[in-house]
Design a protein that fits this description.
- By secondary structure, the protein is an alpha+beta fold.
- It folds into 2 domains: 134 residues, Sandwich (Jelly Rolls), CATH 2.60.120.10; 45 residues.
- The protein has a 4-stranded antiparallel beta sheet with strand order 1-8-3-6. It has a 4-stranded antiparallel beta sheet with strand order 2-7-4-5.
- Pfam families: cNMP_binding.
- This is Cyclic nucleotide-binding domain-containing protein.
């Protein structure tokens, strides 16, 4: 098996088991993309046209207005990074995504993916499970943002997402926590 497809193959075998023929065909459709640090890979106001899997690297996802950017997620391990709502609904995204390191993505064109779903009838469970996970994550994120202090949120990152604290610049972490970098610095001092 192609080394670039090892992570995504493992992902499907453990998270979304598909029949062997369907999986083999799906993997054959993915294209490898090597992307430089600082590249925007998704822009607000555009439609998500590819199912994208992060193979290596770090990506930030954020909302932007004319005067502010607010980080909403970071991707640091092999996983799908597609705006599934935009992808599935054929609608424009409100999100932006930028590479924070040199990155390797695997991508498949939306039309090719939909053809595969028709041919193997194996993707409905993938889409359904992905949406359920996305909604669960969004609900937890919103609940935590409303009910917890920035310090509590930082401590959760320290416990549940320590790789974020190692791989992501602190000013991006501060934006994610909706605090200033100076406040984050004070929280970090108290927590150490």
């Amino acid at each position: 098996m192609n080394i670039e497809l090892k992570e995504i193959s493992t992902f499907f075998e453990t998270e979304y088991p598909l029949n062997k023929d369907g999986l083999r065909k799906l993997l054959s459709l993915f294209k490898v993309e090597n992307i430089k640090k600082g590249t925007h890979i998704l822009n607000a106001g555009t439609e998500e046209k590819h199912l994208r899997f992060l193979n290596k690297g770090v990506i930030r996802e954020y909302y932007a207005t004319s005067d502010k950017e607010t980080n909403i997620n970071f991707y640091t391990k092999p996983q799908f990074i597609t705006d599934l709502y935009s992808f599935n609904a054929d609608s424009k995204t409100k999100k932006q995504q930028e590479t924070l390191s040199d990155t390797q993505l695997l991508s498949i064109n939306k039309s090719a993916f939909r053809e595969l779903l028709k041919e193997y009838d194996c993707g409905k469970s993938f889409i359904d499970l992905s949406f359920r996970q996305l909604l669960k994550q969004k609900e937890l994120f919103e609940y935590n943002r409303i009910t917890k202090t920035a310090e509590e949120l930082y401590n959760e990152l320290f416990i549940y997402r320590p790789n974020w604290l190692d791989k992501i610049p602190q000013y991006h972490i501060a934006s994610y926590l909706n605090i200033t970098p100076e406040t984050l610095s004070r929280i970090r001092k108290r927590s150490s």
